[in-house]
């Protein structure tokens, strides 16, 4: 994006470069957002060397996104819009820094004003009040001058005046663009014939299903055919899915039928009220889609959806039993009521109807057994049942049939209800319409996402567009009549099986059904209702999933399990109209419960040598300060969890050794009024209860949260609560990062207790009160003690009078420089793997293995001596001394796991190269790519390398005095294996034969004989092998032949090992 610069602005470009903030130079102008961002960062780094403004990236990206949006929609005066966005960005940053760093806020305001002047061509203002204030605190007058001076107000008025009209035009333009059919462009020559055949086959399912669902909705059968004429066409033109087919659904039909069946009116009036229900559903959908309410489906969980679908399938099946058995009883949406009516009228069962039902089920399931698609089964059932009806005359045997179906398509709007009818029933239809719309949309959007996931599509599924398309489709039922229509799982699956790949199938299907209405309605006279019921039962059986609650129970998801059981029982025993809203309410209550009760508050500790803070339980050695507790609140602070937040913070403040609680607010994305009041009350309670001796510090607040807290005067409460600690220059109401807050807390507490001041450097003392103790923690504490809030070793230990960092402890303990992560004892399994090689070296030297002199120059905890003595090697030298300067002892073989920091590996390579004796290193996989290793093996007598790699990765043990807890003592950071060289004592072939019987290891003479997981990622051979594997996989996927991949693996010996290695690492 470019910014227009006038000649005057070019002449005055250097005006913005004051006070070290080199935004632009006289010859270098800002021409894009990247340069703008870099200039702003340079300006901020002038006074804040180690930090960058919070959320700066967010505002930069948001500005770029909105500018791209304006360019796509051809907005005029883009420069003004860009300037306004950048100005808003700087204002938000200014608000954030006003309380954190007043001098930074002044600098930001100057940058904002100068940049506006630069872009708009305004000369440098002569008013001295517009210059940067010399003091650190900017005055109200100078701030107002900076905000208003030098700005062309006409531009802003013109922007505001035209912005609203342009926004409306752009909104409609985008709306109409989104309404373009998802399946366009379409290859008519290639796909049209296949789509027509698929539509004809699909019609054989839709026609009997529409007739059956019309009876489920308590309507005459012909209304089912009317209903599938126009809505599928409209959805095909407006829907976001190119595969989902609109058709009748069990849940909306059952809801409509439950209401209409109880009304003492004629079938024609019931059909009119069904049209009215469809219009109400359509209007509700249109309203939700226009208001962008598609996000509401995110609050409905999968257990709820599964329970709804399963329970509704059970209700539908129970309602169809009377048709399958030929019993003439009143329909009911309650399972217990339907079953009771059937069992009390078992003597009315029609044996001929039962036989017809059994034949229909037999045909459907037999064709499934032979893996024939559902359209053929439905068509075969339809043809056989109708043919048998004309042969034996069903009506003479008491078998209920569809009967006469009026021929032709009704005149548009002729079935619309009269004014008196809809006025009398409008209010009573509202609950039915709301329940049908909610239930239908949930199933429809779930189906659309499932189809998109399995088969893909040109556009992603849009919930808002689904609202609009289904709303228009259902509103169109006023033309020919019908009941609410949604995305149908049965019709969609059948369309895909028949070869339909776009919405053209649905359009042609509507045409076919219209032709059937015009010419072939008399054919369905002898169609039995039992056959229709059988098709309905088979269609809804796919919705039954009784394994879902068992799976939830096995996964210990007891809340979801209870939601599933409760929803199922509500639908089955109380009815759909009551159950659906109740189940949705239960889900929302569960969401609020989980948000309020399961919010995680973790205690943080500092990684030694850095200013990074991580959860205590995830690192093995962290710097913890008993008097300062750092807590990370990982959720928005709102009314649902505000009480829990307050209680947990008070629990931490009440601990005896705690003086300051630092709250990391980086994860608090928003805060509501209840959260603000709770935070203010918490500050006041801590201040009054402990009389100012303890206080709370907030760090890493987002800009929106910081502005809300500032508007609510939380900063003033924080200032008042910490009055006795504000002598430090580091005090801020809101700290930009956690480390700054901890520094201030340490300095404030040490000053208040009379201890010496800490230096102003950015380092903190690392206190390990109990971590340095060599006593093991008691694992038999009772459960109540283990459930104390964020309890660990440091929180229960008394603060020592003198503290030492890990580096200081290591400097005293070891004569050469090391880091804490260097100290990890090798497992005994690693020494057992190279025992045959040590025995080989002893035999070659003519010694017994207990006489073999083994030298390990790096001391950690002395465990190497015990591990080798257990294998029979008694002469092991491993002492805490600097072998770089001291004289090394006489040895036969060097065996070590060296530290990886600094230049230790390189110095060790030089040492063994000079000695010329056999050596065994346990080092990471990347060592073979280092220059010092290549120089070592190029020396005389060092070329015979041998490698022993474990099939299961080594796990190293942290020494006791460096552990943060006993449970965090193990680590396995990267693949490591033995680098071995026998020098002139033994060859690689002899070592390979000695390792022939060793299990659990890979013994090779070249690193590239190992699996790919042992390679270094920068190794060219690694990249070559990976490319070969990827191309082979693509080739196998394209050809559908997996045998070639396995044969390739046997030839090279890497592909199979790579897969096995991945499996082992997953087990670890």
Produce the secondary structure layout.
Blueprint: H1 7-11, H2 33-45, H3 56-72, H4 78-100, H5 102-120, H6 140-148, H7 153-178, H8 188-216, H9 222-227, H10 231-238, E1 246-247, H11 250-260, H12 267-290, H13 302-325, H14 335-344, H15 351-369, H16 374-392, H17 419-455, H18 463-475, H19 477-480, E2 486-487, H20 489-497, H21 504-519, H22 529-540, H23 547-554, H24 558-574, H25 576-597, E3 601-606, E4 613-615, E5 628-633, H26 642-653, E6 660-664, H27 673-689, E7 695-699, H28 703-711, H29 714-721, E8 734-735, H30 738-752, H31 783-786, H32 793-796, H33 806-813, H34 828-833, H35 835-844, E9 854-855, H36 863-870, E10 876-877, E11 893-896, H37 904-915, E12 919-924, H38 931-937, E13 945-950, E14 956-957, E15 970-971, E16 976-981, H39 988-994, E17 1001-1004, H40 1020-1039, H41 1043-1052, H42 1055-1067
Parallel strand pairs: 5-6, 6-7, 7-8, 9-10, 9-11, 11-12
Antiparallel strand pairs: 1-2, 3-4, 3-5, 12-16, 13-16, 13-17, 14-15
Helix pairs in contact: 3-4, 4-5, 4-28, 8-11, 8-16, 8-20, 8-21, 8-22, 10-18, 11-17, 12-17, 12-18, 13-14, 13-22, 13-24, 15-16, 15-22, 17-25, 23-24, 24-25, 26-27, 27-29, 37-38
